[in-house]
Write a structure and sequence with these properties.
With 293 residues, this protein is of the alpha+beta class. Helix content is 45%, strand content 12%. Residues 104-113 have a biased composition (Basic residues).
Length: 293
Amino acid sequence: MYPVDNRNIWINNHVNNPNSPYDYKRKKLKKVIRDMVYENAAICDEISLTQEKILIVREECKFLTKKLKIFEPQLDTSIASVNTTQVKKSTPRKKATTNGVTPKPRRPAAKHKKNIIEVQEPITSGNVTIYNLGEIVYDTPFYYSDCAIYPAGYYASRTYAHFRNIFSKCTYHCKVIKAGSSPRFEIMDHDKHFKVTGLSTDECHSHLISLINKLLGAEDLIPANRNGDRFFGLTLPPVRMKLQEAPESKFCTGYIPLELQPDNHESELKAESDPAVSFEGLHNTLNRFRSRH
């Protein structure tokens, strides 16, 4: 190592000397560092502006959806009233006879009926009760999948663990709401203290299971396992067979009909004991977990 004085002399002669190659490299590195600092600052500013825009757009979406929910029923009633006031009874014109022969009267056109599948009595299977099978929408692929049909107006209830106390039962009301080209799914408890709406059954069901796991003190003790359709009762054999009887189900391309085989029914009944959809299955799983630990 050089002494301190010799080191300073070497630095003055080589580094601080403008004609030295080290001084050129130092200036070049200094310029690169300065450019990187400015570029990093510009990127940070752009990211912060983008985040602010995203927050503004999210708040606008929430505001517009609230307004839409308020005005949607009013628009439906106003449109219906306008249609009833504008429709006038038209008097049939007398057709002139040609060569003494009167034309044959035409048959009146059949009125278009909604494809609503009526349920005479509620269908009960285990912890699920189906009150309305709704109307099959087949002109958009979001109202069905390969193993389930999501009819608009579908309404069912399921008994499961309470979202605030897993040791007490709670009745959850499950609905499929028609919202344009894609449906909206809703889970709400009987007392209307809990309500979640999503674009899929799995989204709503996962939110409920996350609350149950928080009560248990673990994030993934009870996995959701994509049981949203099952929680809504849409995979039950009686429901699927009833929906498949409707002629509109044939136009649901991609949907695989359930065959009349006992194995299919038995596998679905076993799946109904999953802790993510069954109150008894949940407590059986918890008891096994406690016995192991």
